Amino acid sequence: MMMKAKSLLTGLVGAAFLLGAAFSAHAADTLAAVKAAGTLKVGTETAFAPFDYIDAGEHTGLNVDLFAEIAKELGVKIEWVALPWDGVFPALEAGKFDIVAGPATITKKRMERYRFTPPIAEATIAILKKAGDTTISKPADIAGKTIGVGKATAQLDQLKEFSDTLPTKVDVREYPAFTETYADLAAGRIAGVANSLPNIAFVASQRKGTFEVVLPPFGKKSYFGFIGLKDADHAPLMDAIDAAMLKIKADGRMAELQKKWFGASFDTPDAVKDPAF
Fold first, then answer.
1. What pLDDT, on a 0 to 100 scale, did the predictor assign at position 219?
2. Which pLDDT does position 28 carry in this prediction?
3. Residues in the chain with pLDDT < 50?
4. Under a CB-based contact definition with an 8 Å cutoff, are residues 245 and 143 in contact?
5. What pLDDT was estimated at residue 42?
């Protein structure tokens, strides 16, 4: 009986050791797999200028340039996987790619489920209107008007929260992609678009005489980051991407890309640990 108990104990210890060894090996698999394949798969939508969009048939934007620098640091190539925004998080969790470029606004709720890279830009929300529209001169003037915003975005939550503070609520119209909001704004089907300031500032600069930015931004100050899975398997990969991005930030490449795509550089923290919302 004593021998059987000892054998059982020895077996359990051996199984625990093997399980731990297997877990440790598996924990490094994501980074090792990316290195072995020589390719980092990046999921994103291509309708979020100036971060990701299609210009003359080519995928371009800050994300494309920034991931090219990250790829140099990791010694791999980038493979882009494009899909609608409301599908990127389910696809990330299904293992369709290694990280989401997006970017996504860093929020408390998202941080509970996902891991964010160092911020790449400020994401505070603002309003885009048609040029010459004198009925909107400040954010509160959107009370009672129809405002377009992206479906399943942090900007949607911010717009609804702001709407609740107004004497007449905003008629919030959700869209699968921001490109459709801009088309409807230009056609006069909505009065404005709520999106992060870097995005609408870029759109206004590209279509002068058509759109104008309504200042100041409103809501809580927030930041954009890239998103990965928050588990032991992906920790080595996310650690490596974080290190690459902080190196790119420290040597000035990040600021150069921000100036190229936004017209100005942003003072962003190395990490966001306690988002404003």
1. 85
2. 54
3. 1-27
4. no
5. 98
Q: What residue type is assigned to position 32 of the chain?
A: A
Query: For the segment 79-93, what is each residue's pLDDT rounded down to a tens digit?
Result: 999 999 889 999 999
The structure's pTM equals 0.77
Q: What is the pLDDT of residue 270?
A: 96
The pLDDT score that the predictor gives to residue 132 is 96
How far, in Å, CA of 34 to CA of 29, rounded? 8
Q: Which residues are 227's β-sheet partners?
A: 100, 116
Query: Is residue 182 packed enough to be buried (19+ CB in 10 Å), middle (13-18) or exposed (0-12)?
Result: buried
Q: Which of 179, 177, 181, 198 is nearest to 261 (CA)?
A: 198
Cα–Cα distance, 60 to 51 (Å, whole number)? 8
Helix axes 235-250 and 253-262, enclosed angle (nearest 10) = 80
Contact 49, 199 (CB under 8 A): yes
pLDDT of residue 102: 85
